[in-house]
Amino acid sequence: MSTIEATRTNFIKRFFSDSLYKNSFYLVANRGLVVLTGFVFWMVATRLYPVDDVGLAVAFVSSSQLIGSFALFGFDSSIIRFFNSYDKSKIFNTAFFVVILLSALGSLAYIAGVKYFSPDLAIIRQPLYATVFLLFTIALSVAAVIAQTFIAFRDAKYSFIQNLLLTLRIPLLVPFVFLGCFGILSSTFIAYLAAYAVVLYFLGRFLKVSPGIDTGFIKMSYKFSFVNYVSNLLFAATFSVLPLIVLNLTTKADVSIYYMGYTVGYFALQIPLALSTSLFVEGVYGESLKKSLKKVGALTFGILTAVVAFFFLFGQPVLGLFGSEYVAAFDLLRLIALSSFLYAGYVFFTIILNMKMRTNYILLLNIIILVLIDGLSYLLLPNFGITGVGYAYIVAFAAVDLFILYLIKKWGWI
Fold first, then answer.
1. Given pLDDT bands bounded at 50, 70 and 90, which one contains residue 8?
2. DSSP codes of every residue in 164-222
3. Per-residue model confidence (pLDDT) at position 343
4. Which of 21, 85, 139 is nearest to 285 (CA)?
5. Which of 15, 162, 208, 320 lies most in the core, judged by the most C-beta atoms within 10 Å?
6. Domain locations in the chain as residue ranges
């Protein structure tokens, strides 16, 4: 073995022996896989399904994500925050079954009221479509609980395996074309079932999976969970509502174009989010937060620089893979990618707030983001089209970062 090869081998060994870097690698790879398969999934969908069906499917997926945010009830944060100080099996089982119950109730409420707040989606009230939507939403919500549990074990590779199995949804698009927009949801739901059959087996090697809700864990984590729940709900609502705003102010075709631009640009936003999760886990296990923050911050900046440069250089041909009409989202894609640098400051600050149990400030930050992004998008869409949403991202995250600097100075952290 040459000196260069030996050096490279030693570097890789040191990299994966550090739990922060190892978890970070799988988390970033996981996010990349999600974005890549999402890209391919929607690319295939746009080729097989009419643009109006894709637009409706986007609206339904966004609605499911919004309901899923309700159903999580802050457990996605609490699973990690208390995992090293409470019975792991009780934490998982409680989160798993509470989320199933809440996502089912949320879906039923959405189906019952959809004709009042979004008449264009009233087709979901038909029994077959209502069943598909209900099951899809439950599957989407539970996936987050399972993924967070693997991450809390400091073994994010199993979360990666889960999303790798979800690539089955791509070939499943073909046999469900006859269902229209609900064929897109059905293919994804079946892929989730296949993934669960595998990952729950792996999960059973770490803890005991059984029906039951531990009231002790709920009482202990209630305040932390609830504030994070409301905060996460507001944050998820910010992005889940956007396709509905675009639908109401423009056309179904514009929703499709917006969503494809967002889907591609979403990867840049996922870099700081993935790495901040690794930072959170390390803090819970007692590692130095300051030291970990420096390591993760440098890693984040390096990866983001490469990703944003790629989107600026090759964003148009990438969007063109969906279809020539989707190149119209290029300006939106560039703005979303640029906003990821500003978004990183917000994400890392919320991790520090969670570690210090100052969750009320996370709630305040997410209220600001909701008001600015959705409010500015509503104002800018009529004049700038879907690119106006990108401007809203930049302004909102810049304003939040300035507010964060004010808080840091006020608290004497710098």
1. low
2. HHGGGGTGGGTTTGGGTHHHHHHHHHHHHHHHHHHHHHHHTTTS---S---HHHHHHHH
3. 95
4. 85
5. 162
6. 9-410
